[in-house]
Amino acid sequence: MKKRKERIDRGIKVRSEDIFALCSWREMLYLSSPRLLPIVGLFVLSFVLSLYWQKVLLSVSVIALLAISWDLLAQSGMVSLGQALFFGMGAYLAAIMNHYWGWSPFLTIPMATIFGGLFCTVLLLPVLRLRGIYFAMVTLILPIMLVRVIEATRIFGGTEGISGLTPLPSRWFELYIIIVALLAAFFGFRRLMGSDFGLVLKGINDNDRSVMNAGINIYWFKAQALFIAGSAGAFAGAFMTHVYMFVGMPVFALDYSILPIAAAIVGGAGTFAGAMFGAFLLVPLSEILRGLGGLRIVFYGLFLVVFIVALPEGIFHYIQRKYNQFERWVEVEK
Amino acid sequence: MSASPLLNVSNLSKYFGGVKAVNAFSFKLMEGELLGFIGPNGSGKTTVVNLITGFVKPSGGEVTYRGQNITGWAPYKIVRLGIARTFQMVRPFYQLPAFKNMIIPLYSPRVKGMAGGKYGDRDAIALDLLEEVGFERDSFVAYKIASVLPQGYLKRLELAKGIALQPDLLILDELFSGLSLAEVASIVPIIEKLRYGGMTIIMIEHRLKELFRIADRVIVLNFGEKIADGLSKEVMESDEVKKAYLGSEED
Ligand SMILES: Nc1ncnc2c1ncn2[C@@H]1O[C@H](COP(=O)(O)OP(=O)(O)OP(=O)(O)O)[C@@H](O)[C@H]1O
Ligand SMILES: [Mg+2]
């Protein structure tokens, strides 16, 4: 007997997310599981992991935050090669407020988030007119320049950095503050891009002249997107500063620019979920490969290449397709 | 009549390197007029539109709208004053469904207040506007992704995006090109309806028969310069125009 693979689309009824979905438990579960999965998953993880892996979870969350911040910019037509700018800006602002002014982390983190976003936006304001690779180049150069400024002028501890900063109350506090922030940013960004405001941002990415022609000041919208993305990155930086109780020039390092992009590309850009997924794959992987010593970067690179070649759309888009359609084998009549 | 013009263009020029795309071009447009722009390919029609709407900065000359000098303003500011234009090469948001394309002009500060603050309202207005320009509601074509729509619908979408801005002056850059006779015939009444609703319209067209039928006045451009300006009937019959334009076209 011959069999063939049948592919069934789950259909508009379920995807329309309206009251039809409330008719059956299966469909309610189908709709809610993608939303519940990251929430439940993160909290369960925080309980079952060992101390070492809890630390890894912290870095994963930080990279995930930078990755969805990158994705937000990319969806708004701005390709950033300098997520480290946001991260470093937040980190240094929090450290300065804590070290020189004696503010508690409960004040420095929110303030560094807002002002970090603001300063980054102001820094990039003159280049908002640039598109594509030109904008990307500037974002790449800015963090490198800031490092040199700190090095040359020896401000804020110079090459030594600032140490002895106030830690956060406890390990659990650290873990939950970053998990909650990540989830809030993730669902917030998704909602934002689904709104009319987000539609305008997507329109700018698609065809900016057409958006201008609709009487919309695209630079104002880009600046707002930049502020939101910059603030998310600055939060990550400010948070890590208090976790490490130290800030130094490495916060502007290329790692914080490249890793989030790699996560977003491997996971699948344009959905936030892909970027987050990518971070949860790449960061632990890099930890596991630590044992390989010098060969680590080779394996890591190999892994990236394999994934990008096999699933150029990103892992998440692949999962998403499978989720919306299911396949089954059916008998074909002879 | 001594009414002041809605739009006053004087000595407008644009040079691209050595090319004089538009050269010392002047005209006045009265409120409620339907003005046609014609001229051979490359005669500078689109460039004039780009100069008026701020997409290109002029090398010289002045554009005033309702007595206000708007020369060199940013496009979005000009739109907010009430001048909307469509693009000759359609510029939809290809990744969005047709009706979501409409949300972006409806989100513009010019109409945002009028179009209701809420998300759902704007969707409904978008669908209504699309129906007005011929997206049949029964066919659900308004829900299709723009990238799969045929040229006829993309042109209609372009028109709807312009109308959505509720402009006082609407500039249509070759709306009819690439459309079948039947499609043109179905769009002409839409334009006439707008015009009798009080909208001032500039139409750039290569489809002369249709244009001469609905335009009050026609301006002819050749090599960036105005060679004729008058009532449709007069322009249609002037020798200069036949020589520069009609003669070379209809052989
Ligand atoms: N951005 C530009 N850079 C250089 N030259 C340009 C540019 N835009 C237009 N031109 C030139 O200016 C002249 C007028 O072009 P324009 O597009 O305004 O003509 P048109 O009358 O709209 O033609 P068509 O009927 O083909 O649409 C042409 O010679 C064109 O090559
Ligand atoms: Mg043209």
Question: Can you describe what's shown?
Answer:
Chain A contains 14 helices and 4 strands. Chain A has 334 residues and is mostly helical. Chain A has a domain at 38-262. A two-stranded antiparallel sheet of chain A has the order 1-4. A two-stranded antiparallel sheet of chain A has the order 2-3. In chain B, helix 5 packs across helix 6 (151-164). In chain B, a hairpin with a 2-residue loop joins strand 4 (60-65) and strand 5 (68-69). Chain B has 10 helices and 10 strands. With 251 residues, chain B is of the alpha/beta class. Chain B has a domain at 1-82 and 171-176 and 211-251: P-loop containing nucleotide triphosphate hydrolases (Rossmann fold, 3-Layer(aba) Sandwich). The A-B interface holds A 195-197, 199-200, 202-203, 206-207, 209-218 and B 53, 55, 74-76, 79-80, 84-85, 87, 91-96, 100, 103-111, 119, 122, 161, 164-165. The complex binds adenosine-5'-triphosphate and magnesium ion. The site of adenosine-5'-triphosphate has 12 residues of chain B, from strand 2 and helix 1.
Notable features of this structure?
heterodimer; A: 334 residues; mainly alpha; two-stranded antiparallel sheet; 4 strands; 70% helix; globular; B: 251 residues; alpha/beta; Rossmann fold; six-stranded mixed beta sheet; 10 helices; binds adenosine-5'-triphosphate; binds magnesium ion
In short:
The complex is a heterodimer of chains A (334) and B (251). Chain A is mainly alpha-helical and 334 residues long.
Give the amount of beta strand of chain A, in percent: 5-15%
What is the makeup of the main sheet of chain A?
2 strands, antiparallel
Helix content of chain A: over 70%
Total beta strand runs of chain A: 4
What structural class do the secondary elements of chain A suggest? mainly alpha
Oligomer: heterodimer
CATH superfamily of the domain at 1-82 and 171-176 and 211-251 in chain B: P-loop containing nucleotide triphosphate hydrolases
Average pLDDT taken over every residue of chain B: 89
Terminal CA distance of chain A: 7 Å
Question: Structural class of the secondary structure composition of chain B?
Answer: alpha/beta
The interface involving the most residues is between: A-B, 19 and 31 residues
Count all strands of chain B and give the number: 10
State the major sheet of chain B.
6 strands, mixed
| CATH topology type of the domain at 1-82 and 171-176 and 211-251 in chain B | Rossmann fold
- Written as H for each helix and E for each strand, in order along the chain, the element string of chain A is EHHHHHHEHHHHEHHHHE
Please identify the top-level CATH class of the domain at 1-82 and 171-176 and 211-251 in chain B. Answer: Alpha Beta
